[in-house]
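Forum > Structural Biology > Help requests

Title: Can anyone predict the 3D structure of Family 43 glycosylhydrolase?

Hi all, first post here. I have the sequence for Family 43 glycosylhydrolase but no way to get a structure on my laptop. I'd be grateful if someone could post the structure tokens.
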Amino acid sequence: MKQLQRRSLLAGGGALTIAGLASPALAGAARDQNALYRTPYKYGRLVLGPTNEAGAFDEKLVDCPFVFSANDRFYLVYSGWDGTGYQTGIAESQDLVSWSKRRLILARQPGDPITSFNVNMATILRENDLFSPGRLVKVNGRYLGAWHAYPSPGYEEGPAVIGLAWSDDLVHWERTAPILYPQDGASWERGGLYKPYLIKVGDTYHLYYNAKEVTPGWPWREQTGLATSKDLKTWTRHTSNPLIRNGAPGAPDTQFASDPVVYKHGDRWVMFYFGLSTETKKAVELLAVGKSPGKFTKSSEVLINVGPKGAVDDLYAHKPSVIYHDGALYHFYCAVSGTGSKQVRGISVARSKPW
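Reply #1:
Sure, ran it for you. Structure tokens for Family 43 glycosylhydrolase below:
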């Protein structure tokens, strides 16, 4: 398998700690504010990994978790990579740990100018409350998802676009034309659009996404923005984009501030996202909090750090999806370990109470 730059970002470098990010006073304030959002107890194993089955859509890699509940069970939507490109699968669970009934739900369409090689549905509209079962919310009686697609074969090759999809049963999806193109945005996003995350606030849809700048190759920077719409057709980029910008030297998100997911908690809006540090070459899970869904203040705390050498997440712990169940927050993330051809990419989980 070709070793490609965005997924092989990082070899070496030390783990980030709160003490290395801020003064003790600032770190203490962050700890107090973030107490309800911490999930320090790692499961320590992959809950979903590549099948290693020749010809399977998720043969080689599993990535980008999105977890929710519907029909009295839990579902995990994820992207699988078969060596050609991304496609979208789904798995089921009763306990958020044992996942089964994996199947393809959104496949590439050979010959299509948008999805010939890739299509990854990263989110389905769900209730906003962080401390909820993560139930889906229908629009005109149907489920509504958001996807992104890279135009070229390979691992995230070319400037990706974002679109919507509709379903009656969570298995069969009708994809619409793209709604956001990188070339219509500012310079920070013209290299391509990454993971969309869709919520509805009142009568307005909010679509968060990360994007990369235009560069001739690696390395590049990624930051997070927002577009809104009342009719799902006309989208307006937020005037403060990018909402989550790369941090200053020494911060955990100096190169990437990516893959946002946004929830409501009381009068707060809580964004989980991941950062990549140019110094440590590690990707870790981070947090930003705001009084509105269009303005967030980043915390200095690392919510989920990489593990020690040999752990399932000794390279990256990134790409969040969070759900509440049985008195605990479950924080799913993409865990990457190993190097070169022995690198393993799958999905793991941490939660707010011990296992």
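Residues 23 and 300 are 10 Å apart (CA to CA). Residues 18-351 form a domain with the Tachylectin-2; Chain A fold (CATH 2.115.10.20).
Shout if anything looks off.
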